[in-house]
Design a protein that fits this description.
By secondary structure, this protein is of the alpha/beta class. Among the domains are: 280 residues, Calcium-transporting ATPase, transmembrane domain, CATH 1.20.1110; 145 residues, HAD superfamily/HAD-like (Rossmann fold, 3-Layer(aba) Sandwich); 161 residues, Calcium-transporting ATPase, cytoplasmic domain N (3-Layer(aba) Sandwich), CATH 3.40.1110.10. 48% of the residues lie in helices and 16% in strands. The strands form three sheets. Strands 1, 2, 3, 4, 5, 6, 7 and 8 form an eight-stranded mixed β-sheet that branches. Helix 21 links the parallel strand 20 and strand 21. The longest helix has 42 residues. The chain is elongated, with a radius of gyration of 36 Å.
């Protein structure tokens, strides 16, 4: 295993250079040395000293993400490639005195930036409310004055803690800062937020009677005398001294995000499409100018027309449509599913996700064990073993005055009713402690006067060590337990012993010569919605990868229970042996990655992206921050630690795959609308530009005046707002919706050329029907204006429809309005204002024939395009 990102042990930070440093010792400093270094004592600080230190150290707060001002957020919106292109075109239009075109474009840029800024501002306010909802308190020992005889425990805001404070911890408490244990009783701490390990970690002071017993290697697990901010007490109690607060904690220093975040799938696609458009737009004006000068002797008077042609290729409404679509989707998620989207483009990335990476704990399982069965010493089912284990849990809870049962005891009591327990009365109990790793209940059974029964349960090795077994039998039972553990189970060993009744206290020395009964086999309880959510994700084309710190067998067992084929399994050691290329290949068919440290999760997510997948990562612990930043879209529950919520793009109400499924569906809805808008608008615009270039070469006059181009674009823009309110067909939500520049280029090239053919056919109709007109140029302009709007309306209706879905209301109404404007505007009093002349009736009849043929061609081409699309593979198999 490589080193985790957590640094090694360090001396307590007193924040005062005058405080004496703890002398170097072979092991961790003693409690007395730590207290002296912190200028504190077992009774804690005085109120006056605590106030002085609070002023010097500051509040116990993690470094918060710097709030973004409204003006900075607005300017940051201008960095969007599409918005930047439009801004440049607007400025160029102003330079060449195309005031109308420039004004409209700059107005659209401002509207887009305002919409995006307001959406992200609302998300920030929601995140601020979440931060306030998870504020915590701490129980601290403080004296009112130096002469006070005893410290008084009191509840204070955790933000007021300072180094040197003495705090008390109990079951369910959040560790409010980095602390060093002074005393502890049966303390076990959840450190999943730091290490990813779901099982609670045993903690005890190093200078206790049993001395330090730390596992080898770096990180929190190697320092059982320290508890860290970001962890919580699972069981037991402790008194500890605060050694670091706020930005000086392990939590803050070890997991501070470094460097800018990489581009997501949406960012990459937008840049690709933007550069394609920029190349077209840079090429178009010079071609128009050169053609006008070479063929018709025109000079710079064609520059406004050339700029208008370049503008005509640009989807002016794209920033407005994209921002509106994403903002509406984010608002719907917040309203209906309590999901907060903190970065609007992340909603499109959600719709494009085809691989979802997640931890097992809390997502697929509830981090709550359940009893699977109980077996005797030969592996045969034996319910009597479970009854004795439950008796131990019951009497330990009653007699040891524990506030709540731990997770394992609770699972035993949930499975066994009170009337199923062996008859008897409890005498005393020796609760679990992390050194013995077992608990004992002493029971007086009916009909056995003068005899007490010791009921012992705990870790397999510790119970077998105290049982009356020979070495061969002990090895056999250890092998039996190892086989069960390989299936992902947790095992409790159970033994009993008969002892003469006595009045003096029982001690751990009595836990010898036990009669071994068997094992209780437990598994993590599955999340009730997990199986259904996995099926729904699979139906949407999303495969799952499990990146967990747990044992491989545990993860594989969970997969099988949920109907998810585990396939190949890689551990952290396997990942370390692979280079990036080999890991990317291995990630194709690997579902379970076990024993993962933070850097492993980030490498795996990066490898999947290298393979071309759009990845989402769902996490809630500090160890998940690198992977959240590496993914295209990071998700976390609202109960995640603050640094995770600040890093994630999407914050869920609960850590539930059902909410992820809803978010992906809304993301597909939004991504589908954006893709439909781009397909239709770019293909139509490209066809118009090709036709304009051809007309500029063939005609002795400009095919359209700049004012007419502006009026046409305004009509297009108004109609295209309907795409922000579109409802994609159900079939469009079945597969990831990803913007692929090459796919767009093929689509817009094919359908753009088809549109250009229709335009050129209209040229022939216009030349044939307007030859005898008194105002040939005005009639031509009016005819082409009408045809452009009618073909745009046809494209909106026919290219939008996909397999399995009809044309939605907003698109139909917008297309109808566009067609009506195209026919009526040249005939209205506004026609002459725009230099449009009336058209002969014959034109309309021939135009109808051209449009009918164009509609048939669109239908045939769209059907062939749909048939060429490959159906997505089955995501249930990697």
């Amino acid at each position: 295993m490589p080193e985790t990102t957590a640094p090694g042990p360090r001396a307590p930070d007193t924040g005062d250079s005058r405080a004496p440093a703890a002398p170097e010792t072979p092991g961790p400093p003693t409690a007395l040395q730590v207290l002296r270094a912190l200028d504190s004592g077992p009774r804690g600080l005085t109120d006056t000293e605590a106030e002085r230190r609070l002023a010097r150290h500051g509040e116990n707060l993690l470094p918060a993400r710097r709030p973004v001002t409204w003006s900075r957020r607005f300017l940051r919106s201008l960095r969007d490639p599409f918005t930047a292109v439009l801004l440049c075109l607007g400025l160029v239009s102003v330079v060449v005195a195309a005031w109308g075109t420039g004004g409209v474009i700059l107005f659209l840029v401002v509207v887009s930036c305002l919409l995006r800024s307001s959406g992200e501002h609302r998300a920030d306010r929601s995140m601020a409310a979440l931060r306030e909802s998870v504020a915590s308190t701490a129980t601290v020992l403080r004296r009112p004055a130096p002469g006070a005889p005893a410290a008084r425990p009191r509840e204070i805001p955790a933000t007021d803690l300072v180094p040197g404070d003495v705090v008390r911890l109990g079951p369910g408490d959040l560790v409010p800062a980095d602390v060093r244990l002074l005393r502890a009783t049966g303390l076990r701490v959840h450190e999943a937020a730091l290490t990813g390990e779901s099982a609670p970690v045993e903690k005890h002071p190093p200078d206790g009677p049993d001395g330090p017993d730390a596992p080898e290697g770096p990180g929190p697990a190697a320092e059982p005398h320290l508890c860290f901010l970001g962890s919580s007490v699972a069981y037991g109690s402790a008194t500890a001294v605060v050694v670091a607060t706020g930005a000086r904690t392990r939590f803050a220093s070890a997991h501070r995000p470094a460097g800018p975040r990489g581009e997501s799938a949406f960012d990459q696609a937008v840049h690709g499409i933007s550069w394609t458009l920029i190349r077209f737009m840079l090429l178009t004006p010079p071609l128009v100018l050169m053609a006008g000068a070479a063929l018709h002797g025109r000079g710079l008077e064609t520059l406004p027309f050339a700029v208008a042609v370049a503008v005509g290729l640009t989807p002016e409404m794209l920033p407005v449509v994209v921002t509106t679509v994403l903002a509406r989707g984010a608002a719907r998620l917040a309203r209906a599913h309590k999901v907060i989207v903190t970065r609007l483009p992340a909603l499109h990335d959600l719709g494009a996700v085809d691989v979802l990476c997640l931890d097992k704990t809390g997502t697929l399982t509830q981090d709550r064990p359940v009893v699977a069965r109980s077996v005797d010493a030969h592996g045969r089912d034996d319910p009597e073993v479970l009854r004795w284990a439950a008796a131990n849990a019951w009497w330990t809870l009653q007699l040891a005055e524990l506030p709540t049962p731990d997770a394992l005891d609770e699972a035993l009591l949930d499975r066994t009713g009170e009337d199923e327990l062996p008859d008897g009365d409890g005498v005393t109990a020796l609760p679990f402690d992390p050194v013995r790793r077992l608990s004992t209940a002493v029971v007086r059974r009916p009909g056995r006067l003068g005899t007490h029964t010791l009921v012992v349960k705990g870790a397999v090795e510790n119970v077998l060590e105290r049982s009356a077994l020979d070495d061969a039998e002990r090895r056999r039972l250890l092998a039996l337990a190892a086989r069960e553990a390989d299936t992902g189970a947790r095992l409790l060993a159970v033994a009993v012993a008969e002892r003469p009744a006595r009045t003096r206290a029982y001690t751990p020395a009595d836990e010898r010569g036990l009669d071994f009964l068997g094992f209780v086999v437990l598994h993590d309880a599955l999340t009730p919605t997990a199986a259904g959510a996995l099926d729904s994700l699979a139906d949407r084309g999303v495969s799952v990868r499990i990146l967990t710190g747990d044992h491989p067998g545990t993860a594989v067992h969970t997969c099988r229970e949920l109907g998810l084929a585990p396939g190949r399994v890689l551990t952290a050691e396997d990942v370390d042996r692979l280079d990036d290329t080999a890991l990317a290949e291995a990630a194709r068919d690997t579902v379970v990655f076990a024993r993962c440290a933070p850097e492993h999760k980030a490498r795996i997510v990066t490898a999947l992206r290298t393979e071309g997948h759009v990845t989402g990562f769902l996490g809630d612990g500090v160890n998940d921050v690198p992977a959240l930043r590496a993914a295209d879209v990071g998700l976390c529950p609202k109960g995640a630690v603050a640094v995770v919520r600040d890093t994630a793009d999407v914050v869920l109400a609960e850590k539930d795959l059902t909410a992820v499924n809803h978010a992906i569906a809304v993301g597909r809805h939004s991504g589908g609308n954006i893709a439909t808008y781009l397909h239709i608008t770019l293909s139509s615009n490209l066809g118009n530009v090709i036709a304009m270039l051809a007309a500029a070469l063939l005609l002795p006059f400009l095919p359209m005046l700049p004012a007419q181009v502006l009026a046409q674009n305004l009509c297009f823009d108004a109609a295209q707002l309907a795409f922000a309110h579109d409802r994609p067909a159900p079939a469009a939500l079945k597969a990831p919706t990803r913007l692929r520049p090459r796919g767009f280029l093929r689509f817009i090239s094919g359908f753009g050329l088809l549109n250009a053919v229709a335009d050129l056919a209209t040229f022939g109709v216009l030349l044939a029907t307007t030859r005898a007109s008194a105002d040939v140029e005005g009639s031509f302009h009016a005819g082409w204006f009408t045809e452009n709007l009618l073909t745009q309306a046809l494209v909106m209706v026919l290219l939008r429809s996909t397999r399995g879905g009809g044309t939605p209301g907003p698109i139909r109404y917008a297309a109808g309005a566009l067609a009506a404007i195209g026919v009526l505007l040249p005939l209205s009093p506004l026609g002459p204002t725009l230099d449009m002349a009336p058209l002969p009736p014959l034109y309309y009849g021939l135009l109808a024939a051209v449009l009918a043929l164009y509609a048939v061609a669109l239908r045939v081409a769209r059907a062939r395009y749909d048939r060429r699309l490959e159906p997505p593979g089955d995501p249930r198999a990697p």
